[in-house]
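Hello,

Our lab assistant flagged a job as stuck in the queue for most of the afternoon. It eventually completed. Since we weren't sure the result was trustworthy after the delay, we are filing this so someone can double-check. Below is the sequence as submitted and the structure that was eventually returned. Let us know if re-running is recommended.
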Amino acid sequence: NCVLSTHTLLEHTDVTFMVDNEALYDICRRNLDIERPTYTNLNRLTAQIISSMTASLRFDGALNVDLTEFQTNLVPYPRIHLAVASFAPIISAEKAYHE
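-- returned structure --
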């Protein structure tokens, strides 16, 4: 779906965060030890990543104080506005408490 919508996203958005469902499934299986991930698991993982990326918009700070500056800081060129999100470490709650 991401590939099919790329042209429309480039034309009609200012900042785009694309998420790959298969990558989310792999993260849930390998890192979070969820044998059969559900959409709830995928949505919670996506929400955590987006929440972390937009924390500077929701809390006081000198960087990214509004959406315009958020876009300016993430988009180097007007046609290159497909941001890549990275989030680490991703470990299960059991491993976090064990370590």
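-- support follow-up --
The delay was a queue issue, not a problem with the job. The result is valid. Residues 2-92 form one domain. The mean pLDDT is 81.
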